[in-house]
Design goal:
Layout: H1 4-7, E1 20-28, E2 33-42, H2 49-53, H3 61-76, E3 84-88, H4 91-96, H5 100-111, E4 118-123, H6 131-143, E5 147-153, H7 159-166, E6 170-173, H8 175-178, H9 185-200, E7 204-208, H10 213-221, E8 226-228, E9 236-237
Parallel strand pairs: 2-3, 3-4, 4-5, 5-6, 6-7, 7-8
Antiparallel strand pairs: 1-2, 1-8, 1-9
């Protein structure tokens, strides 16, 4: 694998911000395996993606996001293993850039990456006021064998109405619903409702931003099996970690939201 830091902005306009790529695993805690890795842009020194994206002018966003995905595929394609790959594309680019799905499919073909292994994450936190347009994008993605996940789901603008109208393949819970859920009855109720509705529609639900054992155990009690967060593994720049580097917390036979765990649990190493 090439060093992701060396890929950043290579061969591109000098005004384009440089970036690195980090990978964070999504884990099926029931099957005890890594089912996917989310690719995350990072700025110099590992700074968040927001600082990189803020330097990209709106007219340049489609080209930048396409180039970023090409760099991600170059970094991950050769060692993808069996896990899927999640990439982020902004709603503005997907909904307003004609042919974006086709362009992405062409890039996958050039990289030799099976389309069924790619999941496009669309953030619900950014206003999606064109449900019909998103439905068209999802249909186009499915026609090319790609899948769509709604990110930051549950506190954004569309909620369950957008979910029912567009039918993505996956939803990723907004971190504000996950944070300290074991201490919040209302959050537990909301997440339980989302899990039930998504399950009835045949959609997968991923809990994102899990940082404490109390959150982890509460979410498992609510039926979540797909988990992503610093508790299990932080994003790692330049490579994707395997299940052998991840330790799942062990719960005693008490209510999960009390957060009681085996004191001998080994936490994953930081990177």
């Amino acid at each position: 694998m090439r060093d992701a830091n060396n890929q950043a902005g290579a061969g591109r306009d000098a005004n384009t911000p440089r970036f690195a790529i980090a990978f964070q695993p999504i884990i099926d805690i029931k099957a005890r395996r890594v089912v996917a890795h989310e690719a995350l842009l990072r700025g110099p020194g590992g700074s968040p993606a927001d600082g990189v994206l803020a330097r990209v002018k709106a007219p340049d966003r489609p080209a930048f996001e396409t180039a970023a995905i090409d760099a991600i595929l170059a970094a991950r394609g050769a060692e993808a293993g069996e896990a899927d790959l999640h990439v982020n594309i902004s709603p503005a680019v997907l909904l307003r850039q004609a042919g974006m799905i086709g362009t992405l499919a062409d890039g996958l073909a050039r990289a030799g990456f099976a389309p069924g292994r790619l999941v496009i994450e669309v953030t619900e936190g950014e206003r999606i006021d064109d449900a019909a347009g998103l439905r068209t994008v999802i249909a186009a993605a499915h026609a090319h064998g790609l899948r769509i996940a709604l990110d930051d789901f549950g506190t954004g603008y569309g909620g369950l109405g957008l979910l029912a109208e567009t039918l993505p393949d996956l939803v990723k819970l907004d971190m504000t619903l996950v944070r300290d859920i074991h201490h919040h009855r209302v959050r537990r109720s909301l997440v339980s409702g989302i899990v039930d509705k998504a399950g009835a529609l045949g959609l997968g639900v991923i809990a994102v931003g899990v940082e404490s054992e109390g959150e982890y155990h509460c979410l498992t009690e609510l039926g979540l099996t797909l988990v992503q967060g610093f508790l299990l593994a932080p994003p790692v720049t330049g490579r994707a970690i395997g299940m052998d580097e991840i330790a799942l917390p062990v719960r005693r036979a008490v209510p999960a939201w009390l957060g009681a765990v085996d004191d001998q649990v080994v936490r994953p190493l930081g990177h």
